[in-house]
Design a protein that fits this description.
About 5% of the residues lie in helices and about 25% in strands. The protein is built from two helices and three strands. It is elongated, with a radius of gyration of 18 Å.
């Protein structure tokens, strides 16, 4: 793949916004913004979820100018990305555990009264 390096940051601390107080700063290692054709890609040297659009803006990429942002994250991204998103679409990749618990075949757990299997898990409680 042929890419252009847009910017780099050494020992980047990625902000995980908190509902109150200062954001928690999570080490993402050395991060680089790359461009391949019309696609901007952010990569880091440490395993780290994408918590907020700040990782893009800190590298000189304006997330508000993008039609599509794809943060690699389980759920931690939602609080910071939802306010700027027209729509949030979850994607599931294969792995050790399915992100949708209804896809997990439980053999010793009765899920009939648990959310998300039960529409109202507190009914009759």
């Amino acid at each position: 793949m042929e890419v252009t390096i847009l910017s780099m940051l050494d020992d980047y601390m990625h902000a995980l916004p908190q509902r109150s107080g200062e954001p928690y700063l999570y080490p993402a290692g050395d991060v680089v913004a790359l461009r391949c054709g019309s696609i901007d890609i952010v990569v880091g040297s440490e395993r780290c979820q994408c918590f907020s659009p700040s990782i893009f803006s800190d590298l000189g990429i304006d997330p508000m100018l993008k039609r599509l942002l794809i943060p690699k994250s389980v759920q931690h991204f939602f609080e910071a990305f939802a306010p700027i998103a027209g729509e949030v679409i979850y994607m599931a990749a294969s792995g050790a555990v399915a992100p949708d618990p209804k896809q997990i075949t439980y053999r010793r757990l009765d899920t009939s009264r648990l959310y998300p299997w039960a529409e109202d898990p507190l009914a009759g409680a």
